[in-house]
């Protein structure tokens, strides 16, 4: 990838010397980062690295600290403690160099709805010093990649949510970044369009070698990542490949709904010798043979059970396993953003 710095006398971008492209240098390195909003702690001692060319997810419920960390990596917010590096450059001490190497797609739309697709991309490119044939060539390539060539002169306000998100991606990729940061990229999109967007990101990583870092609270998005850092209340509670995180659950997940969960929990322990966890009014049991256990539970306590389900563990089950709380309810206490 090329870095963009100053422009020459003809308005074309000069090449920037890239001493940071050694394979051993992580695309992103976060070391003991913390952040406070007054008395509230949004991040605490967050550390991880992202390798070059990786599709990396920051997974967590709303309020888990994802967006705060995103803003720090995008140089929009200074960490209270710790240090974050992007392509070998400090997000605070060398913010200008970081900005030349990242493309950013925010959760809220960053397009001017009254301008055309072409006008939005052209104005964005000029902010990065792109002019003339260089800008035209890059725009044409991105429009082709995202199936937007026939929408070139259409106002953004007339585009569907999925098409507008494609324009956002094209805009973020226009300066040819080494790292693409996306904050809840599928926010407001229906499941079909969300899958389409994930497909584009996977193609992009494979075709261009771009490092993609996204924040999400959607499990299907996290499933497509190479690795996932799970954030809860500002803390990284797990970091690994999705399959590895799910394997840590240790078997099938059996979920039991009953009007008397505490009483049934005790009786299940006495009868079957297996431990259960009470989460949000339901009993959850991790067991190597979920179907057999579900059958035996219904046989023994059917009159006390409203419903029982079982299945292979999901990332949401892994979150419950690690935190003891439901994914959606883990923000109780309002500690982070």
Can you tell me about this structure?
This protein starts with a strand and ends in a 14-residue tail after the last helix. Helix 5 runs parallel beside helix 6. The radius of gyration is 23 Å and the shape is elongated. It is α/β, with parallel strands linked by helices and 337 residues long. Helices cover 34% and strands 27% of the residues. The protein has two domains: 4-241, Rossmann fold (3-Layer(aba) Sandwich), CATH 3.40.50.300; 250-312, UreE, C-terminal domain (Alpha-Beta Plaits, 2-Layer Sandwich).
Show the helix and strand layout.
Layout: E1 4-7, E2 13-15, E3 28-37, E4 40-50, E5 55-59, H1 66-73, E6 81-86, E7 89-90, H2 95-101, E8 102-105, H3 117-127, H4 132-145, H5 161-173, E9 179-183, H6 191-208, E10 211-216, H7 219-223, E11 227-232, E12 235-240, H8 242-247, E13 252-258, H9 261-272, E14 277-279, E15 282-287, H10 290-301, E16 305-311, H11 315-323
Parallel strand pairs: 5-10, 5-11, 8-9, 9-10
Antiparallel strand pairs: 1-2, 3-4, 3-6, 6-7, 11-12, 13-15, 13-16, 14-15
């Amino acid at each position: 990838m090329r870095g963009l710095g100053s422009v020459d006398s003809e308005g074309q971008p000069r090449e920037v010397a890239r001493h940071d492209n050694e394979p051993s240098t992580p695309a992103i390195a976060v070391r003991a980062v913390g952040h406070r909003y007054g008395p509230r702690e949004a991040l605490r001692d967050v550390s991880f690295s992202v390798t070059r060319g990786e599709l990396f997810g920051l997974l967590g419920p709303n309020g888990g600290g994802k967006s705060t960390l995103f803003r720090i990596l995008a140089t929009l917010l200074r960490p209270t403690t710790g240090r974050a590096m992007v392509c070998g450059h400090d997000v605070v001490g060398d913010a200008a160099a970081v900005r030349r190497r990242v493309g950013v797609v925010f959760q809220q739309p960053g397009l001017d709805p009254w301008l055309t697709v072409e006008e939005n991309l052209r104005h964005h490119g000029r902010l990065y010093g792109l002019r003339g044939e260089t800008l035209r060539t890059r725009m044409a390539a991105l429009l082709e990649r995202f199936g937007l060539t026939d929408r070139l002169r259409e106002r953004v306000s007339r585009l569907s949510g999925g098409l507008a998100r494609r324009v956002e991606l094209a805009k973020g990729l226009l300066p040819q970044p080494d790292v693409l940061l996306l904050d809840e990229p599928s926010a407001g999109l229906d499941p079909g369009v969300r899958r389409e967007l994930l497909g584009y990101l996977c193609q992009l990583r494979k075709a261009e070698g771009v490092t993609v870092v996204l924040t999400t609270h959607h499990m299907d998005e996290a499933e497509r990542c190479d690795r996932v850092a799970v954030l809860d209340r500002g803390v990284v509670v797990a970091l690994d490949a999705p399959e590895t995180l799910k394997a840590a659950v240790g078997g099938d997940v059996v979920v039991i709904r009953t009007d008397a969960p505490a009483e049934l929990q005790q009786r299940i322990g006495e009868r079957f010798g297996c431990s259960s966890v009470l989460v949000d009014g339901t009993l959850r049991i991790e067991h190597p043979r979920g179907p057999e256990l579900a059958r035996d539970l219904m046989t023994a306590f059917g009159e006390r059970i409203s419903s029982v389900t079982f299945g292979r563990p999901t990332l949401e089950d892994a979150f419950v396993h690690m935190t003891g709380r439901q994914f959606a309810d883990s923000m109780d206490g309002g500690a982070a953003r």
